[in-house]
Amino acid sequence: MKKTIWVIVSSVAVVFLVYHFSVQSQNNRLENALAVQYSNQLTSASEKLTKLTESVDQTMLFTDKEALEQPLDDVWRISSDIRTSISALPINNETSAIWMNYLNRLGNGAAQVKDGKVPIEEWQKNMAGARENLQELSNQWAFTNKDGGSKDYIVKAFVQNKLDQNGEKSWKSLGNSVKAYTESDFPMTASEADQQKKKDLQHIKDADITSAEAKEKFFKLFPEFKDAKIHITESSQDAPYPFYHIQFHEGIRIGYADLTKKGGHLLSFLMERPFEKTTITVQQMKDKSAEYMKNFGFTDTEMVEYRENSIAWHLSFARKAQDNDALIYADGIQLKIAKDNGELLGLNAMEYIQKEKIDKQKIVPIDKAELFSSNFSVEEERLAYVENKQLQQRLAYQLIAVNESIGTYKIYIDTENHEILHAEKLP
């Protein structure tokens, strides 16, 4: 009898242990899933808060009603998105309610300004303080990076907190919530697929060159590699357009260059070698880059940006329109120059070779006093071609506007209809 009882008790214990292990494993999986879910929600809220602050800043740039329309729309939309993110998080109810109410008032205020119910001057006055409040809210989300965003911290601070506040809520119901969140995900769209497709260079009317002519053109462009061993192959049949791929090797230097089959235009160049610890000056870098651009025949360009890392300078150039010297950013060239002696390490001229089609466009003067708030001053102005929402190249006023409290902005305004095409805050 005792033996029978012992067997029964042992069996029950084993079943209990197996059940406990199974439940614990399930809990751990759910815990991990919840940690990932809440971590993603926290990251999303942080990113949206940054965008909201930037949009609020942009509403303080202008006084013109049309210029304000887009940033006010952004404030209304993003504030609503953040409320959705916050409502999905198991944070303190009181804190949630306070910020939900604040964000709701912020969004409604932007809508009232857009509808003409609140003067823009009153909005801009109030937003001076709102910017600080938004920054404070961003600081409250700073725990997303605490302990490297570790699962243990997120589970302790949020998952377990949720259970403590809702004792009757089981792991199963929490798991169902995670499942619902997961099922709400959707694939990325490809609305800009046409823009991303490579062009076939139909505008180039030059005759095809032979492999021997490509070799000759390579030595003409890069005379320093006249003694290099080279190997030339043609592009595959599924390439966006025909080109020659030239691989070279000379001493410690190896690399390649691509030339179009039509006319032998330089598409790209890349070279690798060891680097010294010396560093050329910024002016030397600019002089070297200007020399390269001249030698390659890219004389209708202008440097628009440069940055550096430990071994190289990275430079960006844009084509200049013939009739008005406007920068065509879409027709860009990128250079990579060695930091130790200014030697060319890389070049990408694909965008330049593809060449955007630019249409004629009227240039209607703008009244900066009416467009910008009195706190901003325009420090720089020139013309540039940039894309609008329909991915059309539009001629625009490129303005650098400065406000001591908010910062410096680069703004693109359509020269014909005065639409604000882009407005970005500069570092």
From TrEMBL:
Organism: Psychrobacillus psychrotolerans
Protein name: Spore germination protein
InterPro entries: YpeB_N, YpeB_PepSY1-2
A Gene Ontology BP annotation from the UniProt entry: spore germination
Domain Sporulation protein YpeB N-terminal: 26-122
Sporulation protein YpeB PepSY1 and PepSY2 domain ranges (all copies): 169-356
Pfam (any one): YPEB_N
